[in-house]
Write a structure and sequence with these properties.
The complex is a heterotrimer of chains A (93), B (161) and C (123). Chain A is mostly helical and 93 residues long. Helix content of chain A is 86%, strand content 0%. The termini of chain A are far apart. With 161 residues, chain B is mostly helical. Chain B folds into two domains: 40 residues; 104 residues, no CATH class. Helix content of chain B is 60%, strand content 12%. Chain B is built from five helices and three strands. In chain B, strands 1-3-2 form a three-stranded antiparallel β-sheet. In chain B, helix 1 packs across helix 2. The longest helix of chain B has 28 residues. Chain C has four helices and no strands. In chain C, helix 1 runs antiparallel to helix 3 and helix 3 runs antiparallel to helix 4. Chain C is elongated. Classes of the chains: A mainly alpha (93), B mainly alpha (161), C mainly alpha (123). At the B-C interface, helix 1, helix 3, helix 4, strand 2 and strand 3 of B face helix 1, helix 3 and helix 4 of C.
């Protein structure tokens, strides 16, 4: 009984995070303007990081933690780079 | 002491991060971490960041607790706004407020706190006028937001003196 | 899926509850990103995931590993600190970029650039 509850709750959490990633991806593809797309990408990265953490809880493998940290790092750097690119003001749609 | 450790707090923080990343407190790790921490502190010296001296640990703790409480509260508020959905779209808007903070680090901290709190987003700070433009999600209680910013400002002023 | 059943009941309940709650908060944040109609409103949505979601799921992970392997090393704190420090920077930069672009295009409903305080010469 307990096992089932644990398995299902982790699975539900992962499904929810997957949905969140899908919404963020939709905003990234659809987003009316460039800043919306970057915001979607940033949210996608954050949700992917959370997804990796839940995988870590599920498999008790601390390798997932390392990858979560790296995803967070790369997400931050890429969002900053894109944001700076917009600030230059040379790419008005 | 000062020549070896120009930024003691930064060095200590870096050492702590190194130990956490390696997940060990073996002597080798500590030596390597100390070398890295001092080296990176010297690199920071070249960047010459603005120094400021936060006073009174107790006030800092109090500020942190206030912020944590506000973050939880506004998390709930923003959740409510999103779940309310289309029935009542959020009445968002821009607000301006005049700040009286001179310390660069205090300003940076205020910016981080305000952006990290769901419901408020820091947009632009005009150094000449010392006025801040920010965006709030729920304009219904405009005074509450202005009040919150003023409260943070007073706390930061007391901390950074 | 064997190791999670080794958890004592209280820890299992805590881990599962925190994980589901954190995922729900992150999902609500993404729903907000989907639903809001203007960019400045959307700017508020990811902060839900980065404050509530990250905090809850990292706490669940800390409890899980601490109880399972009985070793009190909280390296998840690194993720919390990193996300808390970096997210405001990203969002601030994006907000400023959006403001800049909207002003260049002279969109309606965007606050104008504040004038510098310099005194105008009197004629």
């Amino acid at each position: 009984m307990m096992e089932l509850a644990i398995i299902w709750s982790i699975l539900i959490a992962q499904i929810m995070l997957g949905l969140a990633m899908a919404f963020a991806f939709y905003r990234m593809v659809r987003g009316p303007r460039a800043q919306d797309r970057i915001l979607g990408l940033d949210t996608l990265y954050i949700n992917a990081m959370l997804m990796l953490l839940t995988f870590g809880i599920r498999t008790a493998n601390s390798l997932y933690f390392e990858s979560a940290l790296i995803v967070a790092l790369i997400g931050f750097v890429s969002s900053i780079a894109f944001g700076k690119f917009l600030m230059r003001g040379e790419i008005i749609e | 002491m000062r020549t070896w450790f120009p930024y003691p707090l930064l060095s200590f923080g870096l050492l702590l991060i190194w130990l956490l990343l390696n997940q060990s407190v073996a002597p080798g790790t500590i030596v390597m971490g100390t070398v890295l921490a001092t080296g990176l502190a010297w690199v920071t010296l070249k960047l010459s960041p603005v120094r400021s001296h936060p006073r009174r640990i107790l006030l800092v703790l109090h500020f942190g607790l206030t912020v944590a409480f506000d973050v939880i509260r506004s998390n709930l508020a923003v959740t409510a706004v999103i779940l309310r959905g289309r029935r009542r779209p959020p009445s968002s808007g821009f607000l301006t407020v005049d700040l009286d903070l001179d310390d660069e680090n205090a300003l940076a901290l205020l910016a981080c706190v305000m952006t990290a709190t769901p419901g408020t987003a820091w947009l632009e700070y005009d150094r000449g006028r010392k006025s801040l433009l920010f965006h709030v999600l729920d304009m219904e209680n405009e005074d509450v937001w202005l009040d919150t910013v003023k409260r943070y400002e007073a706390a930061l002023k007391e901390i950074f003196g | 899926m064997s190791h999670l059943t080794d958890l004592p009941v209280w820890a299992a309940v805590l881990v599962c509850g925190l994980t589901v709650l954190g995922a729900a908060v992150a999902l609500i944040g993404s729903v907000g990103l989907l639903r809001f109609t203007s960019f400045y409103e959307r700017l508020h949505a990811p902060t839900l995931a980065t404050s509530g979601g990250v905090l809850l799921i990292c706490t669940a992970s800390i409890i899980c590993f601490a109880v399972l392997q009985s070793r009190w090393v909280f390296h998840e704190i690194l993720i919390i600190v990193f996300v808390v420090v970096t997210t405001p920077v990203t969002l601030m930069l994006l907000g400023q970029a959006a403001l800049y672009r909207d002003r260049v295009e002279e969109k309606r409903g965007v606050p104008l650039k504040q004038r510098p305080t310099r005194e105008e010469p009197t004629e």
